[in-house]
Design brief:
The complex is a heterodimer of chains A (about 425) and B (about 375). By secondary structure, chain A is α+β, with helices and mostly antiparallel strands. Chain A is built from 12 helices and 16 strands. In chain A, strands 5-6-13-10-12-11 form a 6-stranded mixed β-barrel. A two-stranded antiparallel sheet of chain A has the order 2-3. In chain A, strands 4-14 form a two-stranded antiparallel ribbon. In chain A, strand 5 and strand 6 form a beta hairpin. Chain A is elongated, with a radius of gyration of 32 Å. Helices cover about 60% and strands about 20% of the residues of chain B. In chain B, strands 1, 2, 3, 4, 5, 6, 7, 8, 9 and 10 form a 10-stranded mixed beta sheet that branches. In chain B, helix 2 packs antiparallel against helix 11. The chains are: A alpha+beta (about 425), B alpha+beta (about 375). Chains A and B meet through helix 2, strand 1, strand 2, helix 8 and helix 10 of A and helix 2, strand 3, helix 5, helix 8 and helix 10 of B.
Amino acid sequence: MFARLLWESFRRQRRRKLLAGLGIMLGMTAVVAMLAIGANVGDQLNRELSNTYGANIVVYPEAARMAVNVGGVAMPVQAGPKRGSGLLQESSLPKLKQIFWRNNIVAVSPELSASASLVTSDADAGASNVPVLGTWFHHALESGANSITTGAPQTHPWWKLRGAWPAEGQSGEIAMGATLAAKLGVNAGDNVMLAGQPARVTGIVSTGDADDAKVIAPIAMAQQIDDAPGAVDRVLVSALTKPEDALARRNPETLSPKMRDRWYCSPYANSISYQIGEAIPGAHAEPIRMIAQGEGQILSRISGLMWLVAIGALLAAILAVSAAMTTAILERREEIALMRSLGATERVVFLLFLAEAAVLAVVASTIGFLFGTMLARLVGHSIFATAVPMNPALWPIAAGLGLIIAFAATLGPIRRTLASGLALAIRGEA
Amino acid sequence: VAQPAISGLRLFAREFAYRRGRMMSAAIGLAVAAAVVTAVLTLYVDLGEKMHREFSAFGPNVVMTAPHGLSAADEANAESIAGAGSAALRSGYAVATMPPGAPVVVEGTNLDAAMQMSASWKLTRVAASGVLVGARAYAVAGQASSLSLSYGGQTVTVPIMAVFESGSEQDARVLMDLQQFVQWTGVQPTAMSLRVVGTPAHANEVISELRAQNPGFEVRPIREMVEGEAHIVERTRALMLAAVVLLTLTVCVGLIATLSAAVLERRLDYAVMKALGSPHRQLARFFLLEAFALAAAGAVVGAIAGALAALTIGELNFHTVVGLHPAVWLVTLAVNLVVAAIAAMLPLRALRGIQPAALLRGE
């Protein structure tokens, strides 16, 4: 009998139920979308910061001589130790993708500085000695399932390229900094002689810094020019990190084993740098503090802001849904009064209406969860160009929230109607 | 036939008196929506301003170099062009040697200002005064408490005030007080780091102005800093707008349900009014008046609550006061009125379809 009553209620009041269900469904769509975006905004922003500021960790050879650079340009000094001694080895870089936080390493580019003679097609210009920066462009950093294709375009996202990046390895292809290219009158597609070897300039790069005056070549070419096979001066690493807190600043050697584990297993720039130092022999990795801390500060501010906005939107959506539900029940005061006058107990009335609300809430919340997930994906795509993944944990949250709102919105009006007297309710004056 | 003289406001007042619960529930929904819209839009407008302070953690965003030297007047001029909150820092460079005969870049600069501009450095204090030494230089120097630096045949021994870690090429440098540096080396400062506080457009204006006033100097932005700020602020603003759109949509549906119920509930009243000769246009006007009155009341309450919420969020999240923008309140009012108008469309159609004769016969 009860099930039949419930069924008939849905069958005969399709429009009302549809409207109430639509209210819950759209409210839950907004709630799920905001929660999905809120839960994901940290990761999305972290990637965005990484795509904007590039590398946030630098890896040096432990025993390297001190760089005598100002603004990325080597200062003239007396001859230092022979190149190649104490430098990092390119072959050890796949170990970067074997550390505990390997999945957080999103871009890597090694660098080797050299200098070489360059002759352009302008025969009158003669040879000039130019600085060469060897690096990766689209290098496959392979380490089992954790392989990535990476290079300087990812660690230096502000570089602007006209043309194409050179192919990796001994391809005979190079890129040229915009200042140097303008000075030598070289354009993308021109052929030059670099260190006595023919090379094709595939692109002109505007870096906005000292690298504008350099030839930017595949690292294999720089290693050959510098007679330092496999050598690397430094490695720039872009990692997704967690904002620095008090624990991050502690020295891991002075921590208790439990705290050290916590420090080690948190994706701080410091702990990722530490793990890189452990993985690559003879390497010293450290956060580029200006970038790492700046990113951390921005990340915590924006994530905090988005959570507060999400909570506000959640509150508003809950109120909107509960208003719609309350209205739907208020409409049925006469029906409640009629049921009571025909002998239905208060318990039966409550049970019937709560059962209706439960069915409506669960069905509408489930549809709302699906639409909300799709909406979050859409928002993620249009703002961050990456999808917000489906989070199944949000379904029980949406259904539970839908149930609570539906029950809360149902109980009040029923209680009021039952308390106000049947005759008044039937006359519509309750 | 003369139209019956029915006052819309009087009808609304009666409606409010008899159906307070429903009216309040719709008004609360609209007020909360207005509060969130006001709060989010206030933060949206102020976001760039609030984020400048956060972005200053990235350090300088403009670099100026002059081969023939930069004076204190150039520094003051750059600071005044860059505007309030900005900072300029001159530096001179010399390659000296330190024991055990290692070449080291010595940078002469204002040490206090350098520490302030590079707030991200990890500093380990050693003494009250002296030079700042980068971590790599400190390791090469054998972690001594003072350094003997030689340049052009002149040797100075200076105490180490602090060791810093920056993760940049500065870690291989020694930073010395500018006056002492010039006295010792005779080298004048040739570079200036500038932190311009403001929008990226403002930074570009400052660069243009500096170039125009100092044609012999090279002035360039640190591109990743200037462009990065604009990029991140734009993304955050887009997220906030998405939240406002989502919320407006939800409130709109809630209001459709409430207004539709109002029509359904009062269909007998409307049928009587129609039977007595009220044209549909007049009934629609009454109905819209009710929806707009609710929207306006919700907007006023919501704008006040939203402004307070924005102030609280600004204090909690950015630790600064968020400005109040009357234009945002107008936008909130407009949003509420549009939501009310959209939400009223469906119930208005139902209102048009009311057949007085059938309804009054109880069909």
